[in-house]
Amino acid sequence: MNGDGDGEEDGEGARRKRRRLTTPLSSSLLPQEFHPSSTPSPTITHQIPLRPTPPPLGFFQHHLDTANTPLQIQNLLTRWPATTTNPWSSPSYLLSKTHFGTRLVPIELGKSYTMEDWSQKIMPFREFLKTYILSPDADESSYPGYLAQHSLFSQIPSLRADILTPDYCYTTPPPAPPGVRAHPLEGPIVNAWFGPAGTVSPLHTDPYANILCQVLGRKYVRLYPPSESERLFPRGVEGGGVDMSNTSRVDMDAEGGGVEVEEWERFQGARYLEGVLRAGEGLFIPAGWWHYVRSLDTSFSVSFWWN
Prior knowledge:
It comes from Choiromyces venosus 120613-1. The chain has 307 residues and is an alpha+beta fold. Helix content is 22%, strand content 25%. The chain contains eight helices and 15 strands. The relative contact order is 0.19. Residues 1-9 and 13-22 have low confidence and may be disordered.
């Protein structure tokens, strides 16, 4: 009897949940803008080099040819419609560009892809917006939902018109570091990253040069050079033959990094740069540099990979 009763209760609970999630978002109830969080910016002790204005292409190419280190570029997005005439800070605008939120998008659920309880789910954009951005509930969003590394702009070309590919993506970066496999690209790979405060990209490395452009909100970023790889304890090949060698075993959000004491002490000795990326800014991340990213606010970023 208990089993039958529980089944009926679960079914009714599921129906209530579906009704709650599929209730249309009323434009009159939407905030004009996404609200910033009260999370303070962390104290920065090893600031990424800052450029107050976008450097000329010649300067940037010379930087690639010589130092090839990260740069935080302020005022990079001043001509983007997404930050001016077509503001992505407006929930109503984003809904209007996603067929009133009916477009389906892939959402990552869980702290990060390195955790056992991590999963993915396809849902309408409006459901993602309502559940994980505008009114997250503790029972449904114990972990944030993240629209991460998604080719949103090939799916919704009208949003692609709101962004401009940085000219730096047409410079020539150095080859990827030894041991990093990178296929030649015909043009930049453009991805969207949209989620609430608290979303995390664990410490990892990518095979391409990257300009990470911050349209909305703040992100804390920490970067380690390839020369520190041994102190970061890459994962290697894991269950099912999945190569996770581009991801660190160190969990930067866990006490002691989730590793052995000796490993944590070695990690603590690794050299790094850090900064808070704010709306309108771009961050150059060289190929092979390790990076950890955490959203401090509701955040919308666009990444441009090239080689």
